[in-house]
Write a structure and sequence with these properties.
The protein is built from 3 helices and 3 strands, in the order H-E-H-H-E-E. The protein is of the alpha+beta class and 68 residues long. A 3-stranded mixed sheet has the order 1-3-2. The model has no long low-confidence stretch (mean pLDDT 93).
């Protein structure tokens, strides 16, 4: 996920932060073509069981709590 965040930040010119080490260690492989950043982040978040929060112009991905 660290590499994904870095690529998204580079492509969209918007900082993307991975909030915790557990999430940064998860893998994601995908391909997007011309999608808006909020849509891309929503798909990624769903795939890696995370949520997206926006703070000013920065997207922050953080792990969702484990279901019991």
């Amino acid at each position: 996920m660290r590499e994904v965040a870095a690529q998204l930040a580079r492509w969209y010119g918007t900082p993307v932060v991975i909030a915790d080490s557990a999430l940064s260690a998860r893998d994601f492989t995908g391909s997007f073509n011309g999608e808006a950043l909020p849509n891309v982040l929503a798909v990624i978040a769903a795939a890696v069981h995370a949520r997206v929060d926006w703070r000013a112009d920065t997207a922050r991905l953080s792990s969702l709590p484990e279901s019991k």
